[in-house]
Amino acid sequence: MSDKTSAAISEVRKDWVAEHRDLYLSSGGAKGHIMDITAVGGPAFGTHCLIKYTGRKTSKVFITGLCYGVVGGELVIVASKGGADHHPAWYLNIREQETVDFQVATEAFRATWREPEGAEREKAWAHMVDNFAFYGDYQKATDRTIPLLMLRPLESIPVFKAEDATGMRQY
Fold first, then answer.
1. pLDDT tens for residues 122-148?
2. Of 16, 58, 121, 146, which is least packed with CB atoms within 10 Å of its CB?
3. CA gap 45, 80 in Å, rounded
4. Would you indicate the residue range of the signal peptide (predicted)?
């Protein structure tokens, strides 16, 4: 998929993404964790987390909502960017950090992250495509290998608040 096509998809979904993030944050995670995403080819009970990270160029703090799965006791997120030909900014930012913060429902954690390889990656990828079929379509749309990140909690931290973010996600 071209970056132009990806940008068009992002523009259509921008309002939903912002509304979902605001709902998740304003409810302290009580709402927004489980969402019906059948309209975009996902499941009726799609699981969503928030990630909080620092921009590598701006040093601003961003909070982004993403679908997630759990494999081997680790949270798995997918750097798909809708099948665009380049990686999402959040992924590039996390790669510059030793840890990342994430929130699942009403609990938040500081975590280490890693990229699975080989058979482990194949297992995690299959799990994510099984739960979120659109990831398979996104991979077919691009020549890049869509990265996966696996997050392992280190410690509990306070749930995220809208005011924690000093930057807004660019679509």
1. 999 999 999 999 999 999 999 999 999
2. 58
3. 20
4. none
Reduced 3-state DSSP string for 83-137? HCCCCCHHHHHHCCCCEEEEEECCEEEEEEEECCCHHHHHHHHHHHHHHCCHHHH
The SS3 call for residue 37 is coil
Q: What is the CATH number of domain 3-159?
A: 2.30.110.10
| Single-letter code of the amino acid located at 70 | V
Amino acid present at 124 = A
What residues contact residue 74 under an 8 Å CB cut-off, 6+ apart?
Answer: 150, 151, 152
In the DSSP assignment, the letter for residue 162 is G
Query: Environment class of residue 92 by beta-carbon count within 10 Å: exposed (0-12), middle (13-18) or buried (19+)?
Result: middle
User: Would strands 148-157 and 69-71 be described as parallel, antiparallel, or unpaired?
Assistant: unpaired
Beta strands 107-114 and 148-157 are antiparallel
